[in-house]
Amino acid sequence: MNRLFLLLFLAMAFSVSYAQSLDDLVSEDKNSEPEVVLADFKTTSVVNFHTVRGPAQKELLFSVKHRFINVSSGLYDLFGLDAVQSARIGFEYGFLDNLSVGIGRSTREKSLDGFLKYRFISQKNGKGGSPVSMAFIAGTDIKTNRWKEEEIDYPSGSGISYFYQIIFARKFSERISLQILPTLVHQNLVKLKDDPNDTYAAGISGRYKISARATFNAEYFYVMNPPESVDFKNPLSLGFSFDTGGHIFQINFSNAPAMTERHALTQTAGSWMDGDFALGFSIYRTFSF
User: In degrees, to the nearest 5, what angle opens at C-alpha 64 toward C-alphas 88 and 216?
Assistant: First the structure.
């Protein structure tokens, strides 16, 4: 837990130090009201992980995420396109402009996930504004596939895990937005006794606006105490987002096996250097009520 607190302290120190330097560089109108910075990200995920943004009040966001098998499978499998590694269908609903809830179902381990996202600070320009946006996310992931060792009497709740995340985000310009994401994943049951039940990770993610409707996206997570049962590699994902007017379409490459925090931060074993990354895509559609 001390590591998580350290991550939070460093992230907050970063935001405060930037605010001080901003005051030195920008001359502000003392009588102006702080103005909320808009359009920091196109949608609610960079690739696998969350952005600080959620659906607006009374909006329902429907998403489909799909990942093929690794490119290293070769020409016989058309470099991964012949088979599916994982897929997820999800919904997110905005109760308020800064409070949303989400649920999803993934094919990997037939897992069900849910989360609550609260954006408690919004970046604002002007005197008295905030140099960053901040959001807190708490979620759970339930593995529902059958245990391989059916003869073992597993304790109740063995397949349940939780994650907690704070996002520090800043839109630096019309083109560049960046995030820092201290994260904790807790698993009730791990594979080996030397595997940690609590996994600590720190992520950085962002987007670069190529045009009015296209962005380049990237995210990387450093896991401080990876599991011993996996030849673990830190998850790295790169991709592009396209705003079609009615949908947000993403195409990406990632070495993470699936699109939830538990899968990406405790089960990633693919190395980019060995071609163990996969093509994937995501589609987001928003419905207003």
Answer: 110
